[in-house]
Every structure is written in C-alpha cells, then in structure tokens.
Amino acid sequence: MTQGVPLKLAGKHAFSQLPAYVRLLRSQPFDVVHAHYSPDFVVPGIAARLAKVPTRVVTRHLANVWSSGKARLYANLWPNMIAVSDAVRSTLIQSGVPEHQVVTAYAGIPEFPRTPTRPNRRDKFEAGFFGRLVPEKGVDVLLQAAVNTPDVRLHIFGDGPSEKELKCLATTLGLGDRVVWYGRVPDVEGYVESMDVIVIPSIWAEPFPYSGLEAMAMGKAVIASNAGGLPEMIRDGTDGWIVAPSDPAALGNALTFASQNYEETLRRGENGRVRQQSEFTLPKFGERIEAAYLRFQS
After folding, report:
1. What is the tens place of the pLDDT at every residue in 208-255?
2. What band does 43 get if pLDDT is binned at 50, 70 and 90?
3. Strand pairing partners for 82?
4. SS3 261
5. What is the per-residue DSSP string for 120-152?
6. From 279's CA, which of 58, 238, 240, 292 has a CA 20 to 30 Å away?
C-alpha cells in the first residue's frame, strides 16, 4: 500500500497539474479518492473523473452557502460529500446539493498527553479564548461581556489583524489587568489546563472547531455561541453553555453563572471530557469515515 506520493500543489484551479493528478490516480487501482478543500476541489475532481475512480468523496469544512452554479459544479465532480457537522450539511443542501449526496461525520482529535487536573480556586475566575483575532471570532463581544463580570479574568491566546483594535477596546472598556494577552502559543494544552472555562464567542457559523474538542478533552466546560456546529458539539446545560451570538449580556450571564457555581462548572467540564473520549476520538472519526465510504459504495 502506498503511504504517500509527493505532489506539489500549485494553488487554486491550477489546470497545468491535471496530467499529474490523472497519472497518480491511474498508477494503481484506487477505490476511493477523498479530497479536502485546500487549495482546490475542481482540478482533483476532474482528474478523479478522468481516471474513472469508482468513488469520489470530498469533505466540506465550512458552513457557508455556495452559489447555485458552484453547488451544481461540485455536486457533479464529487457525487459524495462529507460535512463536518449538520450545520455544514444544511448549508450544502441549501446551496442545492442533493440531500442524498451528503453525510455528516464529526471529527475526532488525538489523545492528549496529560491527564486533566482540577485547578485551584484563585482570586479571579479564569476564562480562556484560543483562536485567531479576527472579527468573526467575536472577541469584541467577549470583552464587552467582561465589563459586568468583575470576578472574571480573560486570557486571550492568539494573534491576527484585529489585535490592535481589540486591545484598544479593552482599554476603552476599562478592563485593565483583567485581560491578559499572550499572542500565539505553540503548545496550548498547558494553558487550556490552567483555565476554569473556555469561551468560543464566534459570531459566524463555526463548522466544528478543534478548540472546542481540545477544551472538552482537558475537562473544561465551554461557553459557546449558538452558531454553526457549536451546539452540536457542546450540549447546553450538560457540557457547558450555549448563548446567542453577538450578545454581550447573554455571554456575561453565562460567565457570571460559571464563576459563581464552580462545582457545576467542573461537572459540565467532566461531562464534556467523557463525551469527547467516547465520541470525538480519532478511532471514532475513522469509523465514521469508513461508514461513509461504505454507504457511498453501496
């Protein structure tokens, strides 16, 4: 079995690479071609069809609606689609992809190297955000929510084009040392472990973010927006809190409840850890992908 064949990708719609794709796919009797978006669906799809691979599969990672023309093109090139969440599946169907062509397969993550520990109570309740500092991640909403939660300290891990603007907003809101900025960190596990709760305040349709799975793996309750695949991952009242996006008051209320009901926050974090270990592991992910292949081939 071939483990890997180097094929340098030239970028989106690089039709000059079509012959190389076709040669690769004809080099042995592949049963399935499975592509991901980056950087292109089109050229690999044409190559797979020219090579007459029996089953062509693509994974869709974003919950954005396609134009009708794009949906028709991709549905023709890729008769079988895997969505990373039901939210993504719904947008594909809304775009015009036939319902029977799309299945959902939730992702899994590798086992974390350390065992979660119970953090000691401190003078502040520590809430962590991990992600890019861009408008759609809703960090501005989190900062506004913190204004009325004086017992909560925010820890912001990540960088991006909105960093300067967000720091100015924190100053304007008078948050002072209640916000700690770390920039991008290479190893997040230790930082996640030190938090009391993880916040995913996105204002866009998050597909099925790994930051939520990592938080669950570390036994951390999650406060997340009711957007995209987040409510499929985090069960409101069980693994954490689901709040309305772009609503600082709702987010602030969840932070207040979490900080004032510490044992309940720990309980929800443990529930999430159990769920991640039972449903969102790499072996379980592999089983879901295999089941999708078998369905597509039937």
Report:
1. 999 999 999 999 999 999 999 999 999 999 999 999 999 999 999 999
2. very high
3. 59, 103
4. coil
5. PP-SSEEEEEES--SGGG-HHHHHHHHTT-TTE
6. 58
